[in-house]
Design brief:
1% strand; mainly alpha; 48% helix; 390 residues; binds fe (ii) ion; 2 strands; single chain
Length: 390
Amino acid sequence: MEHNAQQSQKDKIMKHKVQQSKDTTSRRSFLRKGLVVAGAGVIGAGAGVTGTELLTNGLPAFAAAGSSSLKQGDVAILRFLAAIEILETDLWQQYNELGGIQDSEVPGGSGSAPYIKALQVLDGDMSQYIHDNTEDEISHFTFINAYLASKGADPVNLEKFRTLPSSQATGAQQIGRLTNLMQLTVDTSWWTRLRSRTKNPDFGDTFVQAIPGLSAGQFPAIPRHDGDLAPTDHIQAIASTAGFHFGFIEQGGSSLYPSLAQGVSNLEVLRILLSIGPVETAHFQTWHDKAGNAPALTDPINGLVFPNLNASPFGGEDFQTNLIMPEPTIFLSRKFPVVSIIRPTEPGGSGGAVATVKAWKADGLFIGQPPEFFTILHDLAVKADVAQRG
Ligand SMILES: [Fe+2]
């Protein structure tokens, strides 16, 4: 028996080695092809990414392909994550210019006192948290792009799509943006999804909205101009919209990383996803807590209603504002006991790459972007979702 077991183990190792050799060949072939594609590059190496030029200039893309070079699927996952982190950085930058702290870590803008005052109704430290979330996203895309370049793969660059308008409110920079925060349709079903004890989106379940009005119109999450700074309940509604939007964005990251991690082959790439993903969840947990402090009100300008989530017809465990930790629910199979988990996490499911792009598009983040932008983002997402561990 022991001998057979050893032989079987040897067979497995041999099989693994043969597979590795095949992988290396296809990887090199892919990287050579990648070099050609990069020449046509809509998303090419370089601009705006500290250090990547140093890592890539003058070297054929496959020159760095040694024992540490990456499989096609791992490159696809990292490239999609780089794109998402660039887009997150762009939206967080806009929030920071008006509502955060502008300093050497997150430069740009000069703040809007009425907006900051309204954000502080959610928490006195909102400006600091917005700043820190922004800095984290900058570091995420910069790191992932530098890592890709170090492995001879193309970093992601979306600079050509930086054409959307800035807020005209005092405090915002006047520069081109990648994302829109002035006409948002915020899906707030994450609120009830994480409170459900019996449902899980990976089982096909759907969830009701916490703020139905926010999911059924288009609303600004930053002041569009100084005319948005009053009356008080209007700028409060804008700040509260931001509060729920923060949760929407970061819960997306919380599901995206574990969904994609299951397709990763290389252990170091897996370590990257397992180390960045929980930071998205740390952000989300903070925003989940703050959104619950949004006061009940009706925006006197556009009629947007923020209900009292602790009173009828809301209230109870599905809406109670201090229930900010995930309730145990079904996972993998109904035969198992319920468990407290991030959900969804099914590979290629409603928390995967394609679903994330779809959700962000429905959110209105990309209003004004040309068809080419969606083609590129969708292509990156499909490639990330189909990556398979092996
Ligand atoms: Fe991030």
